[in-house]
Amino acid sequence: MPPPALLPPGTPDEVVERARRAPRVPVFDPRVGRGPVAASGGSEQRIVVVGDSLSHGFQSGAIYNTAQSYPALIARALGWSEHFRHPVYDGPGDGLPINIEFLLRDLERRYGKAVDAWEIPGALLHVRAWMDTVEDYWERGAGSVAPDVEAINHALAMYGWDLDDAVTRTAVSLAASIKPPRDDLTDQLVSNHSARAALRVYPHWSAVTRAMTLVEAARGLGEDGGIETLVVFLGANNALGTVTDLKVVWSGGTETPTVFAPADFRAGLATLAEQVRRVAARHVIWVTVPHVTIAPIARGIGGKVAPGSRYFPYYSRPWVADDDFDPDDDPHITAADARAVDTTIDLYNEAITELVGGARDGGRDWYLFDIAGVLDRLASRRYIDDPPARPPWWTPYPLPPPLAALRPEIDSRFLAADGRGGRAAGGLFSLDGVHPTTIAYGLVAQELIGIMRLAGVAVQDVDFAWLLRQDTLVTAPPQNLGPGLKTIGWADQHLGWITRVF
């Protein structure tokens, strides 16, 4: 157990105090130690989700494949796909803001497994032209106008949203935030891409619906025959910036925070929970916040700081080799930073667990899905490859047979190709190093399906054999994802896609 001295200066006192105790033990009992609770109400709307990018279906730096998000996969398992409403993102480039998979496949077709030095000028011109086409579509073309819809989406999730966004943003505020676009030759990322994407999620066909937040939209669905299962999965963006920006900035200061102090998180959670209580849902599943430091967008450099430790001395980009890393030059966070962030997320998840337990004590049929514990069981470099670091509660995560049969085994490393058309490593995270692959979204769906069954919902399992066939990123990744991830590192160097997307 780390003493306070191992946490960085400026860490909130509550986090320092919590770090003196053992890390949180996941709660894999969805009822959090309580007995059954009688559920009541209608079930016309079988599955509704309020969440962020992980529920939106974000993947490889873009939102595009929403038909294979985990909410859509649950709807399929319910036999309810034809009724399940979700936003669609078409157009050139397969989504917005930047689909890294599309980009790498395009570069592979043109330049092979690597962009050679003499090809860089032409490659940059090509990428700029592609980005200009995407920008024109979403800023001035058909994508600039959100389609009219006749009913509220069941997938009420938006990438980038934190706890407060879900209870404050509306179609009115989003539309007002979109500034007139400029055709910028140097910055060709779609302007206001987040607001443009969100307007395809939010209802906006009347003065009433334009003023709805995500939770109020869910309430509207509840008033239309009742919701059978409502999933609430928010909070990751309250800490994600620590690994996407590779810096720790606490809430409450003058800078934009990358991590919210636990007190601020609890305040946001209380507001969110109060609004969720007003939604007519028979069953509500609350999802914990995953430990964002496991995401391979921030790779541990070198060996662990000590035998049995969870942490590496530094965390930098996955294409920065150990021997090339320079702490004076390369962006990074430290082991102390990672420990502070993990401890903070433990406090977030203790608050969510307490919320669910209190609701069940009060007669509400609320459940907990501890995705933080699931991800910990899949963490390759933290636990799987380092048995002495495994806590007493840890056991390997049992993959469904079609995924367990994959070779090499899927893991939490950044996706890499083998140069022969296949995969050399990874498989759980897409090419932004933060969001799941399609098969990993299937794992999320299956875990939720298990909880739904516990609640008495009739639902089938995810068809992982079918799902694996849909996931070409895992079965046939771009082969320019070779050793050292040079092409994707090159793309970030010249396009700055990480900071611009996140």
Describe this structure in words.
By secondary structure, this protein is an alpha/beta fold. Helix content is 37%, strand content 9%. It is built from 21 helices and twelve strands. The strands form four sheets. It has a five-stranded parallel sheet with strand order 4-1-5-6-10, with helices on both faces. Helix 3 packs across helix 17 (438-454) and helix 12 packs parallel to helix 13 (335-361). The longest helix has 27 residues, at 335-361. The protein is globular and about 65 Å long. It starts with 12 loop residues before the first helix and ends with a helix.
Total domain modules: 1
Measure the end-to-end span.
32 Å
Strands side by side in the biggest sheet: 4-1-5-6-10
Largest sheet: 5 strands, parallel
Fold blueprint:
Elements: H1 13-18, E1 45-51, H2 53-56, E2 62-63, H3 70-77, E3 96-97, H4 100-111, H5 120-139, E4 155-157, H6 165-168, H7 171-177, H8 193-198, H9 207-210, H10 214-222, E5 227-233, H11 241-244, H12 262-276, E6 281-287, E7 299-301, E8 314-316, E9 333-334, H13 335-361, E10 366-369, H14 371-377, H15 380-384, H16 401-404, E11 416-417, E12 423-425, H17 438-454, H18 464-470, H19 472-475, H20 486-495, H21 497-501
Parallel strand pairs: 1-4, 1-5, 5-6, 6-10
Antiparallel strand pairs: 2-3, 7-8, 8-9, 11-12
Helix pairs in contact: 3-17, 12-13
